[in-house]
Amino acid sequence: MSDLLESALNPQSVAVIGASENIHKIGGRPIYYMQRHGFRGRIYPINPARQEVQGLRSYESLAALPEVPDLALVIVGGDKAVAAVDECAARGVKSAVVIASGFGEAGAQGRAVQQAMADRARAAGMRLYGPNTQGLANFGNGAIAGFSTMFVEVPPADGPIGIVSQSGGMSAMAYGLLRGRGLGVRHVHATGNEADVTVSDLAWAVAHDPEVKLLLLYLETIANPGMLARTAAYARERDLPIVAVKAGRSESGQKAASSHTGSLANEDRAVDAFFKHHGIWRVRDPHAQALAAEAYLKGWRPEGRRLVVISNSGASCVMGADASEEFGLPLAELSPRTRQDVADRLPGFATASNPIDITAALLSNSGLFGDVLPAVAQDPAADLFFINIPVAGAGYDVEAFAADTARFEASTGKPVVVAAWQASVAAPFKARGIPTYGNESEALGVLAQLASHTALMRRPQRAWPAEALPPLPAGKGRFMNEAESLALLAARDIPVVVHRLCRSARQARDAWTAMGVPAVVKACSGDVPHKSEHGLVALHVRSADDAAALFEKQWTRLAELGASQDGVIVAAMHRGRHEFMVGARQDPVFGPVVVVGDGGKYVEALQDVAVLLPPFDSADVGAALRTLRIAPLLEGVRGEPPLDVAALCAVVVAVGRLIAAASGRIASIDVNPVLVGARGEGAMVLDALVERA
Amino acid sequence: MSDLLESALNPQSVAVIGASENIHKIGGRPIYYMQRHGFRGRIYPINPARQEVQGLRSYESLAALPEVPDLALVIVGGDKAVAAVDECAARGVKSAVVIASGFGEAGAQGRAVQQAMADRARAAGMRLYGPNTQGLANFGNGAIAGFSTMFVEVPPADGPIGIVSQSGGMSAMAYGLLRGRGLGVRHVHATGNEADVTVSDLAWAVAHDPEVKLLLLYLETIANPGMLARTAAYARERDLPIVAVKAGRSESGQKAASSHTGSLANEDRAVDAFFKHHGIWRVRDPHAQALAAEAYLKGWRPEGRRLVVISNSGASCVMGADASEEFGLPLAELSPRTRQDVADRLPGFATASNPIDITAALLSNSGLFGDVLPAVAQDPAADLFFINIPVAGAGYDVEAFAADTARFEASTGKPVVVAAWQASVAAPFKARGIPTYGNESEALGVLAQLASHTALMRRPQRAWPAEALPPLPAGKGRFMNEAESLALLAARDIPVVVHRLCRSARQARDAWTAMGVPAVVKACSGDVPHKSEHGLVALHVRSADDAAALFEKQWTRLAELGASQDGVIVAAMHRGRHEFMVGARQDPVFGPVVVVGDGGKYVEALQDVAVLLPPFDSADVGAALRTLRIAPLLEGVRGEPPLDVAALCAVVVAVGRLIAAASGRIASIDVNPVLVGARGEGAMVLDALVERA
């Protein structure tokens, strides 16, 4: 952890500028919390109107303190806040937490004031938290530089969870939900407007706390993706799962977010790809974060997704089978031996296949649970276990079921979760540390998340070697013309269509003759990136005369459009099995972003695409392709041969490496269509458009 | 309600065959429940070993009773159960509830015994409930012919909800969840194996209880769709919402269901269409049924879906905007006047657009809530209101917020729901009857369901006049040939491609000449329904000679295949904007089912389809088309004109009416592709295949 963050999360001395005697006021709460929750450093209330605050000596000013504090908590607002920050910076305070709002979130003027304040702090070597933040809280050492009322509502307990959030409300909510589930929470930090320190910075610091076993983030913008990526890499290394909420998913949400904190909206698919790439699991809200926490803390890292469902209700078995498909957790195919073992232990009318229906016979024989579980435990086909008890109560020995389940979990180490909505049924399981949920969707959602997130965290990290790109063709327009674009791809060993750039009707005639029928004739000009919209693409050209005539027509048309007459392309016309699109762009936040999807003219309308962030390899592209709606076509349907997916993957990797190598020179690459043939036939780029940076 | 059902749900006398003194035993519980919950009829315990059971005189046998009871509850198992049922039937008992399991769910032999028992009961005029059922319970009159332990776990209270379920476990679970939410439940009925009485029969009866305002169903099979449809029609008439769980959605689930109760698996898309058609809302499980119950019981029937989000957390506003898109509840565009009114009431840095961010200023001014709500109430753009309070506690006057919300709701009558996970925050709202949920997804899910279900219940019901279909072309094969199939469609005014059935090369030559280029030549044989797979379709035929040659080739090929040589079709070749598919089949459960979707060769692989049940009209088809993934193409993209959706809808309606009129004669109709042109250009069927019943 850097020293500067250390000064905020583990300060030896804290000044509270605007300290209050009233523990219900913002200026009173941090002092109250620190004294109450065991902070061992020195607390300096600053309040010129008082001699003493909450039993501590009160000081008139920062200057009056006996030392320069590590951390200053700025409670005062408006101009006074700015003045206090400046004084902290001048005096060598290491970190200042600015609670006051009315800065960046309040409009252009506030943004300017905030920026200037942060710039001065940075120049002085002080880190700034906020403004407009609920502050920081470390229950590992009692350093509570924050004012959340939630620490009164739900008493804190130190534990293995860290929360870092842009929003104070969401940090408090996650904290409260986790504590409500009986889980201990160490870090509860909010970054507010992020004039200096971001969620990513604090995530880095918290990830380095060895006691933290689960890191939860809430973001409205990813201000510092590089730092977040580094944090994620470090977290994967030490097997620390990160579960993030990124709000502002939708257009309306991004609008709301920008009025909330002035966030820069990131295209949501790129955000998804970023999280996925770095092994961060994304969920919709703090409820989902809290829901899965216990299962993560069990240390379960399932190797597979094959599920066993056990219930005392036949209907729950039916619904469990439905849900196994819904959540992508296929029912484990139990071995004949396991099935026989289970059947031997169950009454005759019970089902010994998976889902396992223990039936209401459980009512008369409480031992059934304990009998069945070991029989299943020995089957290697099972990765995950789900016990659903929709109905129990008087007459059921739930304590015995729970003890049997705990014994099962301890002996197998495999994930086992329970759904029981009756508090009396859930309690014995919870008491034994079995993650227990109110319903099947929650329970299976958590198992699915655990399995998927584990796979994501263990995904091999790829590396692309640094490489020097030869100079791009000279030109001052925004776009390279098609011939230049295709040549750039071809130079990277990407297969492009056979074509000639012609500058006379004669050349067009010769090119057609060389190509054979049918051919395509299309105008080539950096000024006309979208040729078809201007009638500048002719398909199925069936004679050399036609090609020559089309040259004249298109050449003239370019002149009419006032576009540069770079030439006319005559290209061979190909048929493949399917058209894909590959795109790449420099994202202002994430850098190179690559898109692959169903191609053709309806790319934008149907949006059947997947996003990848570099570096990635063919296996990653293949996995992305399998998420497309058209994925069934990849393997061949209706007697068709499978597509040459490997060739397509190679094109996608090559396009990704090109834009990564051309950082600062290429803004975007649009390759559409890429014609993909049957396996072994390869792929071929028919059209390309490169945009200069 | 029919008399027979009346005898079960409102019996004047109940015999319990296998009565027990022990109130924890299955034979003891019904008597205990009836005495405890105010049953005013006569209870006759039958237990030859006892003089008295639970304070009531015990009888040796059915014959010993002073009267023939309305209802007999058969607790004894196995052969004794069968004998008891037979005796009840012989003596004129009106209804028998058979608790015992080991019948239809236990295999072929059990099924046979169950069937014979039910047949004998039916012949005697007795209705049979079960076997393998938890029984019936009517808390309106205390007639509890069931043994669920849940009535001990969660004390009953009569109320406006009826539950009818195949599964005893699921009826108990729904009951328990509803009671846990403080809602009263009158009917809790389980039908088990449904040897006679089905969920649909009981739903019909319960729907006729005027006190019931919400009807919840759980089904694994729809055994009696006609009765369920009638029930739904009656329910719509009296504004009674029906919310159903249909388990066995997936293939694994259907497999599990068939081992559970021997259910006949219905194709799940048809199930969805059936529910939709009849205004029944489908949810995943009893949790979802219980979750939405309170909002239904408020009587809210929203006219629209435009949402207003109000929160004291900026982050919740961002997430609320995301969620509004996720749940299809667009944010209401508040009028400038409303926004000004709201802005006037909020502190400067708060947001006056929708979502409305009251900010933490609520902490210092508890009146903000009460100030803002009336300002929004007057705006006609708002249909639904969602108040999200992710964080509150000491210092917040939650009582005042709740009182203001209740006042708002009372004055507008518009749906308003709250999300608050802190029990202390939720309680004041709940106390005032405001539906309050643990999180945003639950709250908005309920609002979306309410809006969608209301629209579904109010959908105009269509009617198709009965019509006589002329005789189908004679033939004994399974399929009509293409020419016959096209002719059948054409006779129903469905536009089909211009074509000729040729029986000689000469005719093929003439036909080509009449058609012009390019044409299609394809073999026509009722024995070869899938022509392309045998190379029997030639596209782009460019000369009369080619047509003649193709005739010879295809004619010979038919002979080689041993198929009937019905002829060779020469058809005009058309281009349209998009290919659709229309299919229709006689479903063994639902009768005629119509499918429309993206057409072409990948229909099965990509499955972009919507299902409709007759009768429906063009508006219904249009709505179905808008659920397709290719829906964006309907309106025209990339400068293309919109498609002739009206023409496509007309084809779908005509195909639906054809299969409905041909019930018993046509098993299926496959129309693929239907070529649809730009608006005004019409639609045209290029190929059709009719399967005889």
Account of the 3D structure:
The structure is a homodimer of 693-residue chains. By secondary structure, chain A is α/β, with parallel strands linked by helices. Chain A is 38% helix and 20% strand. Chain A has 24 helices and 29 strands. In chain A, the strands form 7 sheets. In chain A, strands 24, 25, 26, 27, 28 and 29 form a 6-stranded antiparallel β-sheet that branches. In chain A, strands 2-1-5-6-7 form a 5-stranded parallel β-sheet, with helices on both faces. Chain A has a 5-stranded parallel β-sheet with strand order 11-10-12-13-14, with helices on both faces. In chain A, a hairpin with a 2-residue loop joins strand 3 and strand 4. In chain A, helix 3 runs parallel beside helix 4, helix 14 runs parallel beside helix 15 and helix 22 crosses helix 24. The longest helix of chain A is centred in the middle third of the chain and has 18 residues. About 1% of the residues of chain A have low confidence. The interface between A and B is large, with 87 and 86 residues.
Oligomer: homodimer
Summarize the biggest pleated sheet of chain A.
Answer: 6 strands, antiparallel
Please report the total strand number of chain A as a whole number: 29
Radius of gyration of chain A: 31 Å
Précis, in short:
The structure is a homodimer of 693-residue chains. With 693 residues, the first copy, chain A, is α/β, with parallel strands linked by helices. In chain A, 57% of the residues are buried.
